[in-house]
Each structure stands twice: as structure tokens, then as C-alpha cells.
Amino acid sequence: MTATLTARWVVLDIEGTLTATSYVHVTLYDYARPRLGPWIDDHPDDPEVARALAEIKELGGLPADASTVDVVRVLHGWMDADQKIAPLKTLQGLIWQRGYAEGDLTTEFFGDVAPALRSWHESGLRLAVFSSGSVAGQIASFSRTTDGDVTGLFERHFDTVNAGPKREAPSYRAIASALDVEPGDIVFFSDVPAELDGAAADGWQTVGLARQGEPFGDADFGTHRTIRTFDEVKVVPR
Ligand SMILES: CSCCC(=O)C(=O)COP(=O)(O)O
Ligand SMILES: [Mg+2]
């Protein structure tokens, strides 16, 4: 049976919700991996890169004068363990931004995603993203998809830098406040039950994506409403 929810904003996770986990972990990570070192060496005067480098060295227990090779070893270790650490996501986002601009990358959404996004947008619902992927990476990844450029559908982008960790209620409070609505006016879609717990703790409506073949496809979503595809839910503007 199709569930009907009323809301003002729809906030969406990316990996496992809009795209297959393998698109991020294989296609995007494999694209970033060999480019991290050259990106660091080619951007010595970029303050964003310098800030990320300083954070990586601190978090990775490296000395301030550590070589790019040492830094890249730390970054590859984080990627292998899928640790979504903010300065790594910053560098990946910059690399992906160029990859999309140059036509090397095209985001592959699940088949039900683009029709749902377009119909929500047309109905007057407002769309935002909350992902561990950096805001720059999010926007780039929406600019070139198998369903065209969908950047215009999204009004706001949140990541772990401008909102906070995805499993913590205060991050959701910060987003609700930035959107200037009551938490109950927002519905959050994610494949990770712990993220839905964080959102629900702040009073958001939550929907779990238990997509077949995905890492959380058979997960226990507890009391969260759970769907297999967006075809199983109707969201109408309040
Ligand atoms: C181009 S954004 C790539 C998404 C990404 O890097 C990522 O880590 C996805 O994490 P999410 O929080 O969306 O599951
Ligand atoms: Mg996810």
C-alpha cells in the first residue's frame, strides 16, 4: 500500500538512497583515489586544500611536514574503511567537481529517483540534500546524471561541515533551523537507520530506503516507515 505523507521539505541522503552504494564506493572512489596526491601537489595555494591538509595530518597523527605520499596513505586507509571524514570528503568533492565538468563522470540514479524528484518539485515541495559528500561534490554530481542536470530541483545542500554528523540529532536541528520550518514539516529519506534515528530524535518525519541488493536492504529499520523504492510513498505539500 502507498503511504501518504504531508510535508514542506523533502531532505534526501545520496548513497543507497538516490544512487547505488557501488556508484560511490567503486566509480567515485576509484576516480578520486589516484587523483588525491596530484590534486594536493597542484593546489599548494588553495586555502580550502591547505585547511583540509592540516586537518588530515592532525586526525591521521602525521607531523605538520608529512609528505603527500604519507597523507595519501592516510586518505586511502580512510576510503578503504569507508570513513567519511570531512577533509577527505572536501578533497574528493573538488576532484569529482572537475571530473563531472570534464565529462568523465555521470551520476547513475536508481530508476525511480528522477521521476519522484521531478514530481515532488512540481507539486510545490522543496528539496534539499543531507549527505556526507561535500556540498561541492553533491552539486557537481547532480549537474550530470543519466536523467540530465537536476541541480535546479534542489534549493539547499547540507554536509557534515555545514550541518554536522549524520547520526546526531543536533545536525537535524541545525538543518531545520536553516530551512526555517518546524522539524515535523520535513521528511528525511535515508538508507541508514542510525541517520533516521538522529532525524526522528529532532522530530522529523523519516522514511527508510531498504533497496534490494544494497548494504541496508535487509536492515532493521525499527519504527521508521520503510520502502523499497520511491514508488511506494506519496509526499504532498502541506
Ligand atoms: C558526489 S556526492 C558523493 C556521495 C559521497 O561521497 C558519500 O559519502 C555519500 O554519503 P551519504 O551520506 O550520501 O550516504
Ligand atoms: Mg546513505
TrEMBL record:
Co-factor requirement: Mg(2+)
Keyword match tRNA processing: no
InterPro entries xref list: Enolase-ppase_E1, HAD-like_sf, HAD_sf
Superkingdom, taxonomy of origin: Bacteria
Record pathway: Amino-acid biosynthesis; L-methionine biosynthesis via salvage pathway; L-methionine from S-methyl-5-thio-alpha-D-ribose 1-phosphate: step 3/6; Amino-acid biosynthesis; L-methionine biosynthesis via salvage pathway; L-methionine from S-methyl-5-thio-alpha-D-ribose 1-phosphate: step 4/6
Signal peptide: none
Cofactor annotation comment: Binds 1 Mg(2+) ion per subunit.
EC number: 3.1.3.77
A GO MF term: acireductone synthase activity
NCBIfam families referenced in this protein's UniProt entry, alphabetically: enolase-ppase (TIGR01691)
Job description of the protein: Bifunctional enzyme that catalyzes the enolization of 2,3-diketo-5-methylthiopentyl-1-phosphate (DK-MTP-1-P) into the intermediate 2-hydroxy-3-keto-5-methylthiopentenyl-1-phosphate (HK-MTPenyl-1-P), which is then dephosphorylated to form the acireductone 1,2-dihydroxy-3-keto-5-methylthiopentene (DHK-MTPene).
Family: Belongs to the HAD-like hydrolase superfamily. MasA/MtnC family.
Protein name: Enolase-phosphatase E1
Gene of this entry: mtnC
